[in-house]
Every structure is written in C-alpha cells, then in structure tokens.
Design goal:
The chain is an alpha/beta fold. It has helices spanning 21-27, 33-39, 49-53, 56-61, 66-82, 104-122, 138-150, 174-178, 197-206; strands spanning 8-14, 85-92, 125-133, 156-162, 188-189. The protein has a single domain, classed as TIM Barrel, CATH 3.20.20.
C-alpha cells in the first residue's frame, strides 16, 4: 500500500515548529542546512518535552513580521499538500509574534487570512487553535482567550495550552479556560503528553479546564 497517496488529517500541528529548510533559507539565507537540522529539528529521541521545545524559539524568531508570518503559513500548506493532508488543525501562540511591533490581534488576522488563501489554493481544510503557554501569566492567558472570542467567526476554532508540563501548573490559566464554556468560544483543547499522566489529567478536570 502506498501510504503517501492516502488522504490524511493532521490534528496537532504547531506553526512555529513546521518551518521547512526552504522557507528558513528565504527568511535567513545565512542558516546552513546543518544548522537547520541541529537547531530547528528535534532528534528522534529527546530527553523530555522541555528538550524538544528548545527548537521552537528558532522558528519564532523568524516569524515576527507580516511577510514572515504569511510566508511561513503558505510554506506549511505546501508541505501539507505534498503529504496528502486534507484537513489540519494548526496551533500557534499569537503573543509570541509581537517582538517587532505587531499587535496580537494583528498576528491572528495575518495568519488567518494567509491560511484562508492557502486553503483555497490547495483544497486543504484547516482550522486555527490559539495557544496560551504554561509559563504565561493569568492576564496573558485571558488575552489569548479573548482573541478566540474576537475571531470566532473565522477559521479560529479553539483555545489550547502548550509548553512544559513538568515545570508549570495550570491554576493561573483556570479563568481563561473556564471562559471558553461560554458560547463565544467554539472549542477548547488541552492535550496530555508525558508528565503526570492520569494524575495530571484528573487535576485538569478538577480545575475545570
């Protein structure tokens, strides 16, 4: 069976961890393929989730302007098309892309419009999930939740939380996620990866997340 030709779905795709070497080279021609492989791509086996996440900042640094965000989003859809993806849920943290003056709501506008254009040209259906981070403050999490509310009639579909589970709790994010019970938020996602397993899942349920 030729799996490459089969239609597929992608339900956990981080925009800032999906930069191809081609798009990295366009954004920063000084980065060699060896540097890309070492700094942007996680090894087959990581020590833990925190080790894996050390690669994300490299991509985030190259996603700080409108042109950069549009280019990275279009590049990701091209990769999805080559992989035979027909539906994707793409997640990113808008507050990570403000270092050069973009407002968080403008970041969402840019990525949403770029995704809409790429979806139309490739035929790939996609939704966007806005992420808060475990090390964010309560205010930052609420700000992200409010962005989900503002863009509820677009491809923005849910609120999620990302980051190192071992080092940070969830109590300060309770208000943001509880606000997603309200009709203005279409969905909320919280994934379990490696830390604490059943006990951690129960903690999330008890916290109302």
């Amino acid at each position: 069976m030729n799996f490459a030709s089969l239609p597929k779905i992608e339900l956990h795709l981080h925009l800032d961890c999906s930069l191809s070497f081609e798009v990295v080279s366009r954004l920063n021609p000084s980065i060699t393929r060896e540097e890309y492989q070492n700094d942007f791509i996680a090894p087959a086996k990581c020590t833990n989730l925190a080790d894996f996440l050390t690669r994300a900042p490299k991509g985030i640094q190259l996603m700080q302007t409108e042109d950069e965000l549009r280019l990275v989003t279009a590049d990701m859809f091209q990769q999805l098309q080559r992989d035979g993806i027909i539906y994707a849920e793409i997640r990113f943290a808008p507050l990570f892309h403000t270092e050069k003056g973009l407002a968080p709501d403008r970041v969402v506008e840019i990525v949403e419009s770029a995704a809409a254009r790429a979806s139309e040209s490739t035929g790939i259906e996609a939704r966007l999930i806005l992420c808060t981070l475990r090390h964010f403050s309560e205010e930052q999490s609420l700000q992200t939740a409010h962005l989900v509310k503002r863009f509820k009639d677009t491809r923005v579909a849910a609120l999620d939380i990302a980051g190192d589970e071992a080092g940070f709790g969830i109590d300060k994010h309770r208000a943001a996620f509880q606000s997603s019970y309200r009709p203005f938020v279409q969905g909320r996602r919280i994934g379990r990866r490696e830390h604490g397993c059943a006990h951690a899942c129960q903690h999330h349920v008890d916290a109302g997340i």
